[in-house]
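Lecture 7 notes: from sequence to structure.

We start with a single chain of 202 residues. Read the sequence below before looking at the structure.
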Amino acid sequence: MSRILAVVAALVAVFFLAWQFWLGTGTDEFASCGGGSVAGGSVGGPISLIDETGAAVTDVDLFKKPALVYFGFTFCLDVCPLDNVRNAEAMDILDERGIEISSYFITVDPARDTAEVMADYTDNIHPALIGLTGSEDQVKAAADAYRTVYRANLDQGDFYTVDHMTFTYLMLPGGGFADFFKRDDTADALAARAACIIGVAG
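Now the structure, written as tokens:
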């Protein structure tokens, strides 16, 4: 019973922090495209990670064209695969419309998600989906930059889960944050809003 209460308390803490970070309104230059605006400061910033080939990459390398960014982990059995598949489908929809976009999956479980593990995982979802990992400090810095909260349940043993936020972020060239998408946004809806934003941004 105490273990269940601990898990519930952890989830409540994660989503309370998410609510603090994201609830609210603000000016939004892409308001005509729908979606929500973010309160509480900027999202994104300098990051330094390792891609699935083992190469060191930064935000400068990653955001040369519009990109979707999602945080999760490969041992996640339900939420992460669905969200990554949705993002991959949106990427294909945008490609059919002649809009180039990247999609990145950043692990919040670097202890298990090596570059090789990330490559195997992303290759099974979409050839253009790129996995990113790094040291504990590198991953934490990237998550902090994106106001993403996560918590590993290490008391669960080798098969531990990681509580984490599930937003997908749309970044524009140069690392500029444009919008975020929730789990209930479909691939079609995500692609439509992303296309609108990319069009407004020029």
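The radius of gyration is 16 Å. Keep this in mind for problem set 3.
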